[in-house]
Write a structure and sequence with these properties.
alpha/beta, four-stranded parallel β-sheet, 11 helices, 40% helix, 16% strand, globular
Length: 300
């Protein structure tokens, strides 16, 4: 296997409510806990409220390496292409300065209204064909990703497309359709194992099928009993999370041994980022420590 770095997403310390994101602890403390749990790094991108130098200094203070940041937006909107490209350039410039060569790009669309009159947040985990983007929107999405990928590569940074439940690209079928329209030399992959499984698809099969195109992975586990119950009852995204859809690595249903074997088979090199969006454990530190310890059995 190539050079692997294990990172930890800060999202376990974040709660999303009607007033937006709220940190459960100061960001500096969160990074300290991530380092304490044994991770090499954490996602890191440009911030509006501080300089790049201040952000990088904070990571360095904790001995953490900047891992790929996350840029999610409405990539299916044609009129905003110039905006998307310029923002991606900002992320890529930061990443290059931080020594990181990958950027996650993801769809937005929790509030996207489907032809059934439902939002994608409402159809999370039980998507139908009627909820998909139009053919034109798929084409625009792909063209925008190609443009963004070309722009970031000029900085030596590859974009890695990220599937996400509750957005306009959730299922394996939706992801396959979008990727088939993109240029594989410009648009790579940064899949999320938990979101793929939550969508009702096989995360292991997805990783195996696309392994040569994968630059980075969000390692996430889910509770299959919660997924099945919620899909049958047609819960929305928030109801799934409230019932404990997310699990620490090794405590859910996903076969990470098979996923790591599939990555090793193509000599994968890059970041593996653990994430438990909402933990049922007593503290985020306990949660991320469990996931970090779990990966050690695979030599990671």
């Amino acid at each position: 296997m190539g050079s692997i770095q294990i990172g930890c997403g800060q999202i376990t310390w974040v709660r999303f409510g009607p007033n937006g994101a709220e940190w459960l602890a100061p960001e500096d403390d969160v990074l300290g806990q991530i380092a304490k749990a044994g991770y090499a790094g954490a996602p890191c991108g440009p911030e509006d409220n501080r300089s790049d130098a201040e952000t990088l200094a904070m990571y360095k203070r904790h001995g953490l390496i900047p891992a790929p940041a996350y840029y999610g937006t409405a990539f299916w909107e044609k009129s905003r292409r110039a905006e998307f490209v310029e923002k991606a350039k900002r992320y890529a410039s930061f990443a290059a300065a931080a020594g990181c060569d990958t950027l996650y790009v993801a769809p937005g669309g929790f509030d996207y209204k489907t032809s059934r009159g439902l939002t994608r947040a409402q159809t999370a985990g039980h998507v139908t064909a009627a909820d998909a983007l139009t053919a034109e929107q798929y084409q625009v999405f792909a063209e925008n990703l190609n443009a963004v990928g070309a722009a970031t590569l000029a900085h030596g940074v590859s974009i890695a497309f990220h599937n996400h439940v509750g957005t306009v690209i959730e299922t394996r079928a939706e992801t396959d359709r979008l990727l088939a329209l993109t240029d594989p030399k410009l648009v790579f992959l940064g899949p999320d194992t938990g979101h793929m499984q939550w969508a009702g698809d096989d995360a292991v099969a997805f990783i195996r099928d696309y392994a040569p195109r994968i630059k980075t992975v969000h390692l996430k586990d889910i509770d299959e009993s919660v997924r099945a119950r919620g899909a049958a009852a047609e819960w929305d995204y928030g109801t799934f999370t409230a019932h404990g859809i997310f699990a620490e690595l090794g405590e859910g249903c996903i076969d990470f041994a098979a996923i790591i074997a599939a990555l090793r088979a193509v000599d994968f090199s890059g970041w593996l980022i653990t994430e438990t969006d909402v933990t049922q454990k007593a503290t985020p530190l306990e949660s991320v420590t469990i996931s970090r310890d779990y990966l050690r059995q695979f030599g990671l």
